[in-house]
Design brief:
The chain is α/β, with parallel strands linked by helices. It is built from six helices and six strands; from the N terminus they run βαβββαββαααα. Helix 1 packs across helix 4 and helix 3 crosses helix 4. The longest helix has 18 residues.
Length: about 180
């Protein structure tokens, strides 16, 4: 088993935190995981990318080469990375911020989801869009268990904000399952 996952968007969207959470959850499930990140010189507003490689054996190259799963929360991210997805891979885009141009392979499974709007409307917290997106990825791929993600969330969020993040994760899983 090997998964390469790339999270991409704009600085300030919590893209890197998503990658950290997924990598940690993979470790809790007993897999090997490597996480890396890239972001522009701007702390907010520039491009941001987090990557996770998950395997059931040793990882010898910790960077994503061709993602099996790609999340794009901005047009710039889609334009830059959509052509890199492996045939048969999964592309998840925020339907309100990304206009697909068809640069991804025909065999790629595409899910256009209202990630940010769902965080705003249903959770009244746009800042939780990243965890909604993480829930969507796990809901579509089942790459890690819900228990492992919940453990990673508990390890990375203070008790005060943990319930909201657990809810955001579950909402993302619901979005994904409704889209399948």
């Amino acid at each position: 088993m090997k998964y390469e996952v790339r999270f991409s968007g704009t600085g300030g969207q919590g893209i890197i935190r998503c990658a950290v959470l997924l990598a940690e959850a993979a470790l809790y499930d007993g897999y090997h995981a490597a996480q890396s990140q890239v972001y522009g010189p701007e702390s907010r507003g520039g491009s941001s990318q987090g990557e996770v490689v998950i395997k059931d054996s040793a990882i010898y190259y910790p960077k994503v080469v061709c993602p099996d799963v790609l999340l794009c929360l901005s047009q710039e991210a889609y334009n830059k990375y959509a052509a890199d997805i492996v045939p048969g891979g999964i592309l998840i885009v925020d339907e309100h911020f990304v206009q697909r141009t068809g640069i991804e392979a025909e065999s790629v499974k595409v899910y256009e989801l209202p990630i940010v709007v769902t965080a705003q409307d249903r959770l009244q917290n746009e800042m939780s869009a990243n965890v909604v997106a993480l829930g969507a990825i796990v809901g579509l791929t089942e790459i890690v268990s819900d228990e492992a993600i919940e453990r990673a969330l508990a390890n990375n969020f203070k008790a005060k904000v943990l319930p909201g993040n657990l809810e955001a994760y579950r909402v993302g899983v619901e979005l994904a399952r409704a889209a399948k």
